[in-house]
Amino acid sequence: MSKNLVIVESPAKAKTIQKYLGKDFEVKSSFGHIRDLPKKGMGIDLATFSPDYEVSADKKKLVTELKAAVKKAEMVWLASDEDREGEAIAWHLADELKLKPESRKRIVFHEITKNAILKAIENPRDIDQNLVNAQQARRVLDRIVGFEMSPVLWKKVKPGLSAGRVQSVAVRLIVEREKEIREFVPKASFKLDGIFLNKTEQEIAARLKKDFEKEEDAEKFLEKAKTTEFKVLNVETKPGTRSASAPFTTSTLQQEASSRLGYNVTNTMRLAQRLYEEGYITYMRTDSVNLSQEAIEGAKKQIVSEYGAEYSSPRNYTTKSASAQEAHEAIRPTDFAVKSIGDAQLNRLYQLIYRRTLASQMANAKIEKTVIEIGNASLPQHFEAQGEVIIFDGFLKAYGIVKTEDDDEENNEKLLPKVSVGEILSYKKITASEKFTRPSARYTEAGLVKKLEELGIGRPSTYAPTIQTIQNREYVDKREIDPQTREVVKMSLTKDKIKKEVLEEKFGGDKNKFVPTDIGEVVNDFLTDNFKEILDYGFTARVEESFDEIANGDQKWKEMMTNFYSKFHPRIEDVEENADRATGDRLLGVDPKTGKNVHARIGRFGAMIQIGETEDEEKPIFASLMAGQNIATISLAEALELFKLPFELEAFEGQPVSVGVGRFGPYVKWGETFISIPKGEDPLSVNQARAEEIINEKKKADAPIATYKGDPVTKGTGRFGPFIKYKDIFVNVPKKYNFDNLSQSDINELIDAKLEKEANRYIQQWEKEKISIENGRWGPFVKFGKAMFKIPKKKDDTKYEAEDLKEVSLDEVKKWITDQDKNAFAEKKKPAAKKPAAKKTTAAKKTVAKKK
């Protein structure tokens, strides 16, 4: 029996820590939080702001096991993460497991290494109630905001929507950027680039120092340049340096992993969590750039041995953020001697962290910058060529250079040939190109994290879940924006001749950037109009500062909540009572056929076009918007085109064919089969021949690839990856199989395994009633439709075994279900027939007394 029980958050961490502690320690995992606010209902007493925590259903068995382990131990060590969330987990464990102060100890560490764990054991402390209260304040405030604002959205916009303190501000940033892009008016100018040759025919690429606003001015300059003798007017060489960036914080790691590795924020944090839990890096949720003295010395030793003493320049960095917790360290390797790890995906992120930390402790790179001025006194403007030579690579040897998306693609620093002042140069080519100004770029995931951090909104632990939430809610997405086309003028001077041409260039296209959806824009506009303060960037940042003050013990959390709620709740009541419904309605014009108004708006099933008014005697007609179309930008002509869908084509192989657009985009319908039209293809352009082509492609894709016991087997790719289908059974195909070339034995093996698993799944099944007793991961359970129910204990207080459950009657199982859900078998009421809508009359708005 172990005298000591250590409780950590994750099984992976438990496994790593168990290696470092002797037989006197048993390490168990809480699998994150064991308690939280209830899923149904607010779970907060609004008079006192006391939360009503409960052990979640999936954690009850685990809590029972932990209580049994606590009884056997003399001392319980709470070793959850060192942030506020980790402190709250430790507090919930202590409370739920009834741990007395004398029989519990709280330990923290920011790396999972033997030294760090043993040092933590030697320096325990008690639970920091200030950190717990800061976490409770965030959880309670966000629950209240979500629970009180969301029903307002259901009533005023559309059922099923949600609002949140941080998520709504993140959506606001994306919506405002999109509006800025729409309103942006590009300005044209002419940029001149020249390629000049010295005596030895070496090329020097240079750019004119000033752009021309007008085409005729650029042409005049080229005319003058025809007969100009170009000279080297000046050569200037300046020494310079480049210094390394600070070690990674959570947000800078997310940004760099995005730009260098193409990882999204969620993926980066998932991999970083694994690196931390397996002991390779320090804690990955931090806003500090500090390094411990031990880390600085470890980096120095590695740099000197690998690169030489001249590359070493130990230093510590200062965190600019006032809210950063300086006791924490930056994200760094735990052991600089470990240069790489076995897992390829983990290793890519580890290498990024390893090289960034090493570079931060290395000498500055020394460069020599050369600027050559080319021109003639007779010309109004001169050309400038810039070049750069690295004299000493310093930190670049470890980390290299990465270009940001803001860098000018054409401004590449080049190595320049040696020239002297007064030297005559000839021009090979001078080009005047029409260039347009560009609006601010849409946010990438990393860019959004950077902006939230700049505004002081959220903290390291909130970035990834916030970004995931706004996508899950379908307020924003990363749909591809098709580029537009415009004409640009290009003039080239070569061999005393000017050639002018009009070219086409594409602009405005985007991939993998955040774009607001129609519903996202409507919700954002409603919230910014009616809850200005909650959506205010400064207010959201001030709330974060209040949480920091609570964590430092400078503010009481319930006082902060009382102050917040006293202003927030009356606003909720006022908006619910008096605000108008929001549909994002935009009047596009008049339908020339009917003379009725054409609106773009949000309807019950999303964005749509409506011809006619709801109060007209003749009901309006509707059409859904297609992917890529949007309420704010769709034109009248584009809207009217949608009413040509669906349209019928000739029957094919005895089955009717039509083309339409639905919830999942444009489709060809053949009989009862819906076939998606390829992305980017206009459904209105699909004729009989193209429809038959799409149908034949689908038939080919759905053709059987083999048979199993005489029945056909087909294959496809779904949301969970590649699969094969036999009868009504879908079988996932793991990566170890060659999906493009499955053999008959592969197919037999996959289906046999699936059928065996399915056979062991059901203990009893009543298909007609949609009730079954099934084997689950945590033991047997009852399933009714899609709902799952627990199996109660027998009368003698023992658990049912699988053999016992085979004998249980359907009536007994139904009783188990109704004990847990009284309305499970209640007949669903049919919806009442809709009364004909009364004609609306315009009247003065009634003044309604506010609810008390």
From TrEMBL:
<feature type="domain" description="Topo IA-type catalytic">
    <location>
        <begin position="128"/>
        <end position="572"/>
    </location>
</feature>
<dbReference type="Pfam" id="PF01751">
    <property type="entry name" value="Toprim"/>
</dbReference>
<dbReference type="InterPro" id="IPR034149">
    <property type="entry name" value="TOPRIM_TopoI"/>
</dbReference>
<feature type="region of interest" description="Disordered">
    <location>
        <begin position="826"/>
        <end position="852"/>
    </location>
</feature>
<feature type="site" description="Interaction with DNA">
    <location>
        <position position="473"/>
    </location>
</feature>
<feature type="site" description="Interaction with DNA">
    <location>
        <position position="139"/>
    </location>
</feature>
<feature type="site" description="Interaction with DNA">
    <location>
        <position position="142"/>
    </location>
</feature>
<dbReference type="InterPro" id="IPR013824">
    <property type="entry name" value="Topo_IA_cen_sub1"/>
</dbReference>
<comment type="similarity">
    <text>Belongs to the type IA topoisomerase family.</text>
</comment>
<keyword id="KW-0413">Isomerase</keyword>
<dbReference type="InterPro" id="IPR023405">
    <property type="entry name" value="Topo_IA_core_domain"/>
</dbReference>
<protein>
    <recommendedName>
        <fullName>DNA topoisomerase 1</fullName>
        <ecNumber>5.6.2.1</ecNumber>
    </recommendedName>
</protein>
<dbReference type="GO" id="GO:0003677">
    <property type="term" value="F:DNA binding"/>
</dbReference>
<dbReference type="Pfam" id="PF01131">
    <property type="entry name" value="Topoisom_bac"/>
</dbReference>
<dbReference type="InterPro" id="IPR028612">
    <property type="entry name" value="Topoisom_1_IA"/>
</dbReference>
<feature type="site" description="Interaction with DNA">
    <location>
        <position position="138"/>
    </location>
</feature>
<dbReference type="InterPro" id="IPR006171">
    <property type="entry name" value="TOPRIM_dom"/>
</dbReference>
<dbReference type="InterPro" id="IPR013826">
    <property type="entry name" value="Topo_IA_cen_sub3"/>
</dbReference>
<comment type="subunit">
    <text>Monomer.</text>
</comment>
<dbReference type="GO" id="GO:0003917">
    <property type="term" value="F:DNA topoisomerase type I (single strand cut, ATP-independent) activity"/>
</dbReference>
<dbReference type="InterPro" id="IPR023406">
    <property type="entry name" value="Topo_IA_AS"/>
</dbReference>
<feature type="region of interest" description="Interaction with DNA">
    <location>
        <begin position="162"/>
        <end position="167"/>
    </location>
</feature>
<feature type="active site" description="O-(5'-phospho-DNA)-tyrosine intermediate">
    <location>
        <position position="283"/>
    </location>
</feature>
<dbReference type="InterPro" id="IPR000380">
    <property type="entry name" value="Topo_IA"/>
</dbReference>
<dbReference type="GO" id="GO:0046872">
    <property type="term" value="F:metal ion binding"/>
</dbReference>
<dbReference type="GO" id="GO:0006265">
    <property type="term" value="P:DNA topological change"/>
</dbReference>
<dbReference type="InterPro" id="IPR013825">
    <property type="entry name" value="Topo_IA_cen_sub2"/>
</dbReference>
<feature type="domain" description="Toprim">
    <location>
        <begin position="3"/>
        <end position="112"/>
    </location>
</feature>
<dbReference type="InterPro" id="IPR005733">
    <property type="entry name" value="TopoI_bac-type"/>
</dbReference>
<dbReference type="InterPro" id="IPR013497">
    <property type="entry name" value="Topo_IA_cen"/>
</dbReference>
<dbReference type="InterPro" id="IPR025589">
    <property type="entry name" value="Toprim_C_rpt"/>
</dbReference>
<keyword id="KW-0799">Topoisomerase</keyword>
<dbReference type="InterPro" id="IPR003602">
    <property type="entry name" value="Topo_IA_DNA-bd_dom"/>
</dbReference>
<keyword id="KW-0479">Metal-binding</keyword>
<feature type="site" description="Interaction with DNA">
    <location>
        <position position="285"/>
    </location>
</feature>
<keyword id="KW-0460">Magnesium</keyword>
<dbReference type="Pfam" id="PF13368">
    <property type="entry name" value="Toprim_C_rpt"/>
</dbReference>
<feature type="site" description="Interaction with DNA">
    <location>
        <position position="154"/>
    </location>
</feature>
<keyword id="KW-0238">DNA-binding</keyword>
<dbReference type="InterPro" id="IPR003601">
    <property type="entry name" value="Topo_IA_2"/>
</dbReference>
<feature type="site" description="Interaction with DNA">
    <location>
        <position position="33"/>
    </location>
</feature>
<comment type="function">
    <text>Releases the supercoiling and torsional tension of DNA, which is introduced during the DNA replication and transcription, by transiently cleaving and rejoining one strand of the DNA duplex. Introduces a single-strand break via transesterification at a target site in duplex DNA. The scissile phosphodiester is attacked by the catalytic tyrosine of the enzyme, resulting in the formation of a DNA-(5'-phosphotyrosyl)-enzyme intermediate and the expulsion of a 3'-OH DNA strand. The free DNA strand then undergoes passage around the unbroken strand, thus removing DNA supercoils.</text>
</comment>
